[in-house]
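Exercise 7 asks you to align residues with tokens for two separate proteins.
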Amino acid sequence: MSTTSSTDTVRVIDGRSVPAAGKWNLDPSHSSVGFTVRHLMVSKVRGGFTDYSTDIEIGERPEDSRVDVTIQTASITTGDEQRDGHLTSPDFLDVAGYPTMTFRTLSVEPTSEDEWDVHGELTVRDVTRPVTLAVEFAGVSQDPWGNMRAGFSASTELDREDFGLTWNQALESGGVLVGKKVKIEIEVEAIQA
């Protein structure tokens, strides 16, 4: 069963609120693509990417929705110029050889009232692996200029070595310099087209 709000921007389908069907455009000034990885086995380093684009299409059936993302790998930033230089080198992202990484949606399935699993393929350094994003729909709001905006949060964890990012350094005390697990956290604010 489907009902639509008076503003036609939020629908309720099978008891779940979803944005109106159609294209939604990313607002990069209110969105972020971030990551967290262990350093020296005891602390976490946070970073992100500043240059990315998305293609967001909400389907008439929410399960037919898709989001495709392209990230410019040279836009990585961790707040440390030397570390960023190493991350863009062939040891890690090799931005000269692989200037972009991409995520492509394969399927979408509901997991709770406002949460969805978005199954897709992530490609890093020409290595493609399946990845599932846990996505929360935060709702829709009208901005002061009359635009309808939808908010989404997404997260996942992956093993960087699955994508050929295997550089590391053993520590004398045991363990390694850089953790294998990378937590990805994405915040998206999108404007109804």
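Second protein for Exercise 7:
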Amino acid sequence: MQRQFNILCVDDDLGFRRYLSKSLDDNYHIKFYALGFECLAKCQEWNYDLILVDATLPDMVAEQLVEKLKAIPEVSAIPIVIVSYKDSEKERTRFAKCGCDHFLSKVASPQDIKVLLHNVINQAA
């Protein structure tokens, strides 16, 4: 039996949250938060393998959330993937500067999502 991976996803887009849930299989357990401040308050309550952060959160700038997460010792080593509809080199560079480890387009296929998540988690292990 394969190990189950724990993912924290901070995204207020219900449509993308549903898409992500349907794209992944039983090997992934996802906790969703709609707000950055909610994530910061609860991110240490569970052992995560990966954190997904929406590029456009309603309550804080995504770069700010990434920097705050990286400053928490218990969370700092967890890979962070920015998720955005804007898939451009400019957008990728913008988030790499704040400590984001990877970038995922919200229009990626379910197979591409699984491959990226699997690769990121395995690189961190």
